[in-house]
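Example (one chain per record):
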Amino acid sequence: MSEPRIRVGIGGWNFEPWRDNFYPKGWSQARELEYASRQLTAIEINATYYSSQKPSTFAKWRAETPAGFMFSLKASRFATNRRVLAEAGESVQRFVESGIAELGDKLGPIVWQFAPTKKFDAADFEAFLKLLPAAVGGIALRHAMDVRHESFKSPAYVALARRYGVATVFTESDDYPAIADATGPFIYSRVMRTASELPAGCTPEVLDGLAASCRAWHDGSQPTGLPLVEPAGTDGAARDVFLFFISGAKERAPAAAMALIDRLK
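Predicted structure:
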């Protein structure tokens, strides 16, 4: 297993405004992943949430990116957007066996995103967690829960996530609850507060704060000043950290990610 790292990136790589402020002038759209993956260290793929991808597509993405790069995948909405999560077994299996193993060692966390209206039901949510496989094609899987209802800000949810070893997405957003508790062996954060009037999407102070948080998480400690539901002691073990600039002023996401990567060097 490789040494834990901090990876910073964006959501996707095909976004028209980036052709004016991120990709070199005249750069081929067919080579945008090639370029983006050499400026960033991870990319979150949203397309897998809406539809299945072919195994050959995952293999192509792997081939186009450099060693050490990672993709996180948003799992199929058919697994999470349902009234009874315990009945998601077939959808979970279909997604996991859709060819994601073709990414090999570039397969990062799988993000299970729930609707903002989905409330925490301890029994049903535990039944869902029991459906998540530990591996596929010989590759260990890491699962992150993107929960978006205030009812998840409860000690019962945090305890359940810790028991099953799944991460909880820490979302920096005005629209979704912020849960900064470390519930799994890695950290997954989504920053959704970039501003279009700032060249780097964030102020230097915000970027410095994000860098400090990433370092603390990576070192196995808890950053100060973040909203915790159920504070717990830390064992000091190094952790992988994944942070993505998503939404907000999306046109600034690459600049924000590169500015943070620069601070982390």
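Caption: The chain is about 30% helix and 20% strand.
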